[in-house]
Amino acid sequence: MYCTSCYKDKGNYEYKPLETVLIDTANKNIRGDYSIYRYDELVINPKIVFNGQEVTSTSQVSDKLGFTWAIYQATSGGRAYTRDTISNDLTLRKSIAKPAGRWIVILTVKNLVTKVEEYMKFNLQVDEQLSDGWMLLYEKNGNTDVGLIVDDWTKKNVIQTRTFSDMFLNSNGYALLGEPRGLMHSASTLSTAEVVIASSRDLVAVEKSSFLVFYPIEKLFWSFVPNGEIKSISANNSVGNRKEVIIYNNRIHGVNHSTSSLSRINFFGAAYNGTYGDLAEWSATAFGAGFEAVVYDKTNKRFLNIPTNGTTVQSFLAQASTTAFDVNNVGLDPEAFDWGRGTGPTAGYEYAVMKNNTDRYLLVSNFNTSTTQAGIGKYAVSGIPITTPIRTLCSAFNGNYALLGTDKNIYLHLYQQNTPVVSQWEAPVNEEITCVRLQKFYYNPVVTNLLLPRPNTVVYISTWNAGTKTGKVYAYIIDQTNGAITKSTERVYTGFGKIKDMTYKWSL
Predict the structure, then answer these.
(1) Nearest residue to 139 (alpha-carbon basis) of 485, 494, 506, 464
(2) How many CB atoms lie within 10 A of CB 128?
(3) N or C of the chain: less Cβ packing under 10 Å?
(4) Long-range Cβ contact pairs of 47-51 (< 8 A, separation 24 or more)
(5) Which of 127, 152, 176 is the last residue of a domain?
(6) CA proximity to 263, closest of 184, 193, 208, 185
């Protein structure tokens, strides 16, 4: 026999409702969908109500609520990107570096006591708008990346100055391995004009607006075999001479884009034959249709070339006795190179600072039209101790001057006047000079004058602070005929790595 009964619960428990969190977007003009240009700032300021009271700042509830804004892909397939936390503030105010596409931004509000979470999702469309600007190639954490300066000195009608950093990393999810070697607009076509970036261990061509990789290194060669270190890369675009040159594992490779139509259809070929010594980290930008490439042999202290349609690295023709120096027997160690002033609308000269144990010279070479008199100028460089290295060189486009950079000073060299160099600029305390470049563009003067607001009249000086690990760029208006820097026009840009090179980027 079984009996059942009921026991009346006479407990006097104290019940306390859970602390409530409400994400209210109805009354603050908050949208569910956003569309911005890449690198623009996304601002979302939701109304958060906690226990019936509106939260107006993160600090107001720092011990009770946690805020997490994250972003992830809205689509599957193609390149996969990580889910990233982009803010821990109540209000999202963040520049979005993700490449063009559809993304989800999600806000998580967590009760730090009860561990209960509330969520709100927002759809985000990102579009590309990386315009014309001044590109910076730099080393950061042992790898290579690119920055960009956009202002009214680099693009017509710009009213807002903007700087971008780590553009390759942000676009592709990784940085290029190794130290920087060079960057340039491809000479393939004006329509695509991908940007080619070289580090010591990698080479890529990226889309000029998104900086997404178009061609990894193995796709830039007809037949690619990984074989060592990249020394340099350069491009040339005189009339009908759209060529690129790379020195890879101390061997020279070239590609001719003169038959390309709307995109890159030619690629780097096998290394040219020939016996030579250790090559400088340089190949000529200004050379004529008679050559595939011009390089410098540091071991044997001479210039070398590959003739058009040739397969072998060779010496130049015997030089006339009237040359300023013999390109086949220079006898000097190179310090810095640049290209500059020429005699025609698409011609240019190559400039080099070289030295021996006692003397230093600025050498000017004409590899465009001259075959037996390539060495057209040899000018003494005095006023800098021979033991102080020249790190960087900038040659004028419209004047007879050059800027030489040591670790602390930029010197003006009016080389035809046969006078000592004069210091024009000194690096601030704790900063060292890494590069100096005039705002000019190799593609040809027609493009330069069409696109740039102030062609050949802006000089950029980059510095590095080893203590703070910060790279800066100082920009000034310069007299394009005599090289005088107008210091009152100074502009300073910061937030980069250790800058190796700088050049112009367009976006037609």
Answers:
(1) 464
(2) 19
(3) N
(4) 47/23, 48/21, 48/22, 48/23, 48/24, 48/90, 48/109, 49/20, 49/21, 49/22, 49/24, 50/19, 50/20, 50/21, 50/22, 51/19, 51/20
(5) 127
(6) 193
In this structure, the answer to whether residues 104 and 147 fall within a common structural domain is no
* Cα 183 to Cα 76, 95, 209, 500, distances in angstroms: 32, 25, 15, 10
3-state secondary structure of 251: strand
pLDDT at 345: 43
Of 441 and 5, more confident: 441
Q: What is the mean pLDDT of residues 232-237?
A: 83
Check whether residue 168 and residue 67 sit in a common domain: no
pTM of the predicted structure, to 2 decimals:
0.81
Note the helical H segments in 70-212: 167-172
Assess whether 96 and 244 both reside in one domain. no
Which range of residues forms the domain containing residue 173? Answer: 133-505
CATH code of residue 108: 2.60.40.10
Does the pLDDT at position 13 exceed 80?
no
Compute the distance between CA of residue 458 and CA of residue 480 in angstroms, rounded to an integer.
Answer: 8
